[in-house]
Amino acid sequence: MGLFVKDKPSAASGAGQHGDNETSFFGAKLTVKGKVSGGGNLIVMGTLEGEFDLNGELVVAPSALVNGEVKAVNVTVSGGFSGSLTAKQKIHLEKSSVVSGRLIAPKLSVADGAVLNGEIEMKKSSESKPAANDPTQKEKK
Amino acid sequence: MVKDVTSGSTSLVSRPMVVEGEISGDESLHVDGRVKGIIRLKGDLFVGVSGIVEAEIDARNVVIQGTITGKVLARRQLEVQPSGRFNGECTAASYEIREGAVFEGISRMLDRMQPAERAMVSTGQSNQKQP
């Protein structure tokens, strides 16, 4: 019985190509303005403007442009970002990224070639852990 | 019928996600989560069973398996599937409402409208009234 109850509309639906549907996806030709919140991961390839509070991972693809105040667990930026970026765990900036603004995370990694202008704040995620042994390799740019 | 996507990819608002604001673009959108605000698409809007949309919508085809509340312009077709609910005002070139679906509100046919009126609907502005 309950085999195909809650999940995707199966058949008939026509657009059922998204199998695992906890990851949201905003395509390159899509612009989203406003407030985005909730769980799940988000992959952005288009333009995002506003306030984002995600209980998951945010991936900003090379073609993407994100502007605003972002909170997420993990953030990977390969595209453009400006504004304030807060990650509970870590932020990774790929070499193609162009970032300006304020970054807050316990862990940050920046690839060679990334453009980074702004302010960085590193908070320890939990006091109990003695953090990483000397975060000397946090930013070499 | 929703599959004739000429404009490439389909974006997805997954079930745990809530978007308040404006979503616009040249592609199609599948909503399993919640969207509140404005949706303007060159492609199709597909609202899955768990999807809840409260918005002013302008899309090519609109397919409802979940819930839409608001004002809809479907340039081609509005389809309400058996699990779907629609509340509001809809203008579409054609309708397909399946048995079991809920449609409450006003429906209008797109091709019987005057061009000027159509333009008004598509821009979502009705502030042209004379005093």
Structural commentary:
- The complex is a heterodimer of chains A (141) and B (131).
- Chain A has a domain at 24-121.
- Chain A is globular and about 30 Å long.
- Mean pLDDT of chain A is 80; it is low at 1-21 and 127-141.
- In chain A, strands 1, 2, 3, 4, 5, 6, 7, 8, 9 and 10 form a ten-stranded parallel sheet that branches.
- Chain A contains no helices and ten strands.
- With 141 residues, chain A is mainly beta.
- With 131 residues, chain B is mainly beta.
- Chain B has one domain (10-121).
- Helices cover 7% and strands 58% of the residues of chain B.
- Chain B has one helix at residues 115-123, and strands at residues 10-13, 17-25, 28-31, 34-41, 45-47, 52-64, 67-80, 85-97, 102-109.
- In chain B, strands 1, 2, 3, 4, 5, 6, 7, 8 and 9 form a nine-stranded parallel sheet that branches.
- Chain B is globular and about 30 Å long.
- Chain B starts with 9 loop residues before the first strand and ends in an 8-residue tail after the last helix.
- Residues 1-7 and 125-131 of chain B have low confidence and may be disordered.
- Classes of the chains: A mainly beta (141), B mainly beta (131).
- Chains A and B meet through strand 1 and strand 2 of A and strand 1, strand 2 and strand 3 of B.
- Strand 2 of chain A pairs antiparallel with strand 2 (17-25) of chain B, so a sheet runs across the interface.
